[in-house]
Amino acid sequence: MSRAVATAFGSVAVAAAVLVLKLLAWGLTGSVALLADALESVVNVVAALAALAAVRFAALPADANHPYGHAKAEYFSAVLEGALIVLAAVLILNEAWGAWQEPRAPEQAALGLAVSVVATAANAAWAVVLTRRGKALRSPALLADAQHLFADVVTSAGVILGVAAVAATGLLWLDPLLAALTAANILWSGGRLVRASVGGLMDEAVQPELLSRIRGALSASADGAIEAHDLRTRHAGRLTFIEFHLVVPGAMRVDEAHAICDRIEAALKAEVDGAVITIHVEPEGKAKHQGVLVL
């Protein structure tokens, strides 16, 4: 079992345990704000299951039908999670409206809040683990799950403080207001998540900082060539695809041009983890005098 798959299994277990704790906190208090927090955890469980399926599918090797591999499967998981977040927000707003019309004081507030604090602490700890492993493994699904958990932690902390304020002050309208604010917060985080995932599905180029590093490594390792132009990049999960045309002197032998390509590939793979490189070699008559100039 790969580290990514093992981490995804861990996410399912943590999400399920946190959901049980949050439902217990809501059952003890009857607070609609804590119900909203629990509904968001339902999304976490479904999203963790989707991330597990996506990570396992993305790990499959390339085949005849998918010659570029299955890495993009992880983006579908992130898009699904964003859609589920929107659904959870709608359900929360519906519950908040009902509680606004008929507010009621939370019961057993101290015990319910203590349970919610434990659940929030577990979420925070796992979000840190997911972020570290997601970055190390370059997994969009794990990073998306981590981002959503961090948003959930912030939301839960606000809900805990708010419900405590309701119990202390008797201002019952605070409870549905907190639930509505929770819905707005997860809508915002869901929108960001969908935007990032759609960018991956649409083959967005790598970030400017990484592109600058790629150009630098290419220029430093292409001694003997004339230029590299039509540089194109894109991400697909943990993979980074790099394609360009390499112009060499027309009289250069094939084995010499091939040696330059090997040197460039080694430099790029050392600079970019998971790089998949395609180089089209051209004679000097094809030079465009733009892009990455070597000579």
TrEMBL record:
Classification via SUPFAM superfamilies: Cation efflux protein cytoplasmic domain-like, Cation efflux protein transmembrane domain-like
Start and end residues of each Cation efflux protein transmembrane domain: 11-202
InterPro entries: Cation_efflux (IPR002524), Cation_efflux_CTD (IPR027470), Cation_efflux_CTD_sf (IPR036837), Cation_efflux_TM (IPR058533), Cation_efflux_TMD_sf (IPR027469), CDF_Transporter (IPR050291)
Cell compartment(s), UniProt: Membrane
Pfam families on file: Cation_efflux, ZT_dimer
Bilayer topology term: Multi-pass membrane protein
Domain Cation efflux protein cytoplasmic residues, every copy: 208-284
Keywords (A to Z) from UniProt: Membrane, Transmembrane, Transmembrane helix, Transport
Transmembrane segments: 12-36, 42-63, 75-97, 109-129, 149-174
Cross-referenced PANTHER family: MITOCHONDRIAL METAL TRANSPORTER 1-RELATED
Protein family: Belongs to the cation diffusion facilitator (CDF) transporter (TC 2.A.4) family.
NCBIfam families referenced in this protein's UniProt entry, alphabetically: CDF (TIGR01297)
Protein name: Cation diffusion facilitator family transporter
